[in-house]
């Protein structure tokens, strides 16, 4: 902070087809500011550090309480949520960049479609037969519930994909988040009926064998999901599935 101002350096890009550039801003400091509040100040008064009029910075947000994952961006070199990152805890200048593992739409807003397509690929849902009343759902053991709850907190924010060295433009690796959802839904008594389909999906190209065990994902996950433990368990499950498929030939 310099003279009650927050120094901000933002990597901007007008559209996917134009080159990115850097633009700096000086934002009046207020107590308990988060990164979102800095961007909102620019939106109210889009003037850069040189005093030149510019366009408001584009970013994405929704819940503002670290639940939706929409405001994820790279802040001072680390992928995290802009809503829960406080200015007082950051070194300045604060450097904001879009996630590098996803196509940029504009400025700090990226297209995370690939994550949702991978969730479709692994069938990350519990299928039901029609819309009629199915009666009470199956009971889950308390121990299973406790193991599954942390995985259910995933908000598809993309932090794990940003940190994973195996997620890049030369790899089809789907990343840790969809893999963890396979474990979550296979652990559900109803979801277990389709567990073989999910395991088959992650045994193909871009699946679990592309994980390099860098363990960066578990370090950056804002929800402290035990991703490496979950992937290790899936390694066991896919190995058993592979043996059963081979024996069934």
TrEMBL record:
Domain of life, per lineage: Bacteria
Cofactor annotation: [4Fe-4S] cluster; [3Fe-4S] cluster; [2Fe-2S] cluster
GO MF annotations in UniProt: 2 iron, 2 sulfur cluster binding; 3 iron, 4 sulfur cluster binding; 4 iron, 4 sulfur cluster binding; electron transfer activity; metal ion binding; succinate dehydrogenase (quinone) activity
UniProt-listed Enzyme Commission number(s): 1.3.5.1
Entry keyword set: 2Fe-2S, 3Fe-4S, 4Fe-4S, Iron, Iron-sulfur, Metal-binding, Oxidoreductase, Tricarboxylic acid cycle
Cited PROSITE patterns: 4FE4S_FER_1, 4FE4S_FER_2
Class of the enzyme per the UniProt entry, highest EC level: oxidoreductase
Domain 4Fe-4S ferredoxin-type intervals: 144-173
Any Gene Ontology biological process: respiratory electron transport chain
Pfam families the UniProt entry points to: Fer2_3, Fer4_8
InterPro entries per record: 2Fe-2S_ferredoxin-like_sf, 4Fe4S_Fe-S-bd, 4Fe4S_Fe_S_CS, Beta-grasp_dom_sf, Helical_ferredxn, SDH/FRD_Iron-Sulfur, Succ_DH/fum_Rdtase_Fe-S, Succ_DH/fum_Rdtase_N
Family as reported in the entry's similarity comment: Belongs to the succinate dehydrogenase/fumarate reductase iron-sulfur protein family.
PANTHER family attached to this UniProt entry: SUCCINATE DEHYDROGENASE [UBIQUINONE] IRON-SULFUR SUBUNIT, MITOCHONDRIAL (PTHR11921:SF29), SUCCINATE DEHYDROGENASE IRON-SULFUR PROTEIN (PTHR11921)
Record protein name field: succinate dehydrogenase
Native source species: Desulforamulus hydrothermalis Lam5 = DSM 18033
């Amino acid at each position: 902070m310099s003279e009650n101002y927050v120094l901000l350096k933002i990597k901007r890009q007008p559209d996917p087809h134009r080159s990115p550039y850097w633009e700096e801003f000086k934002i009046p400091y207020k107590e308990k500011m988060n990164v979102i509040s800095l961007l909102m100040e620019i939106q109210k008064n889009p003037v850069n550090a040189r005093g030149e009029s510019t366009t408001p910075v584009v970013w994405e947000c929704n819940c503002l309480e670290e639940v939706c994952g929409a405001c994820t961006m790279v802040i001072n070199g680390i992928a995290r949520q802009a809503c829960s990152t406080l200015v007082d805890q950051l070194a300045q200048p604060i450097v904001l960049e879009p996630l590098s593992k996803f196509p940029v739409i504009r400025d700090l807003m990226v297209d995370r479609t690939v994550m949702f397509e991978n969730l479709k690929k692994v069938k990350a849902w519990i299928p039901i037969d029609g819309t009629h009343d199915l009666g009470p759902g199956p009971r889950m053991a308390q121990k299973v519930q406790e193991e599954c709850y942390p995985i259910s907190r995933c908000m598809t924010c993309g932090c794990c994909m940003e940190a994973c060295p195996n997620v890049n433009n030369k790899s089809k690796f789907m990343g840790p988040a969809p893999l963890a959802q396979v474990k979550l839904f296979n652990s559900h008594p109803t979801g277990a009926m389709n567990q073989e389909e999910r395991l088959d999906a992650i045994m193909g190209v871009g699946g679990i064998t592309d994980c390099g065990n860098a363990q960066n994902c578990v370090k950056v996950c804002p929800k402290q999901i035990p991703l490496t433990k979950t992937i290790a368990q899936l390694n066991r499950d896919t190995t058993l599935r592979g043996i059963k498929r081979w024996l069934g030939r």
